[in-house]
Amino acid sequence: MQWTLVIPLKPLVRAKSRLAPTAGDALRPGLALAFAQDTVAAARACAAVGDVVVVTDDARAGRELRALGARIVPDTPQAGLNAALAHGEASVRSVRPGAPVVALNADLPALRPVELARVLASAAAFPRAFLPDAAGIGTTLLSAAAGTELLPAFGTASRARHTASGAVELPLGGVDSVRQDVDTGEDLRAALALGVGPHTAKATAGLLLVD
């Protein structure tokens, strides 16, 4: 089975506000873009992924991610993360009604294609499934099989909301790179320890991460 990934990305100037204490507002947009570039590149390198769709209105991000092979869909609803994901899902299924779809965070700079493939292989057994983030509170990935609505409920405490919605929680072992999203300086240190992609490595070169 090959999946279509839908990745939402808010305008870079507003992205990753919780990284401001670590990187400052001048570097923060570039970091957000680097995270998305490494996420898209790793997803495109995963054998289980047939297509990557990024929902964004950011012109710079659109150019850079299109160059990595993503299809760019404008965030027409402009009503937040879950609305953007539902819009991306609708865009995919307007062309391929039977496509299995996965919502994936844009801030997974340590993402490894082999670990993503492992998660997607597990997800294929269920109509809807999700993977909790490294903190164990949120969600980094939500899948919907052909003929099943995605029903995204990302945001605060989304692990509990996705469980309540009937989505199956996927095994957590051996897929740290798919769980390690980056919102804070502590998250960034954890991602760097796992080993980030080239765009994030370049963007963080010389960045002093203070405890």
According to CATH, what is the class? Answer: Alpha Beta
Q: What's the Cα radius of gyration? A: 16 Å
Which regions have little confidence, pLDDT < 50, spanning 5+ residues?
A: none
Q: Which percent bin holds the helix content? A: 40-55%
Largest sheet: 7 strands, mixed
The name of the CATH topology is: Spore Coat Polysaccharide Biosynthesis Protein SpsA, Chain A
Beta-strand residue fraction: 15-25%
Number of strands: 7
Explain this structure to me?
The protein has 211 residues and is an alpha/beta fold. It has one domain: Spore Coat Polysaccharide Biosynthesis Protein SpsA, Chain A. The protein is built from eight helices and seven strands; from the N terminus they run E-H-E-H-E-H-E-H-E-E-H-E-H-H-H. The chain has a seven-stranded mixed beta sheet with strand order 3-2-1-4-6-5-7, sandwiched between helices. The termini are far apart. The relative contact order is 0.19. The model has no long low-confidence stretch (mean pLDDT 95).
Key terms:
seven-stranded mixed sheet; 8 helices; Spore Coat Polysaccharide Biosynthesis Protein SpsA, Chain A; 211 residues; alpha/beta
Task: Write a brief structural summary.
The chain has 211 residues and is α/β, with parallel strands linked by helices. 42% of the residues lie in helices and 16% in strands.
Topology:
Elements (H helix, E strand, L loop, with lengths): L2 E6 L11 H25 L4 E7 L3 H9 L3 E3 L7 H15 L5 E4 L8 H11 L4 E5 L6 E6 L13 H7 L3 E2 L6 H4 L5 H10 L3 H7 L7
Parallel strand pairs: 1-2, 1-4, 2-3, 5-7
Antiparallel strand pairs: 4-6, 5-6
Helix pairs in contact: 1-8
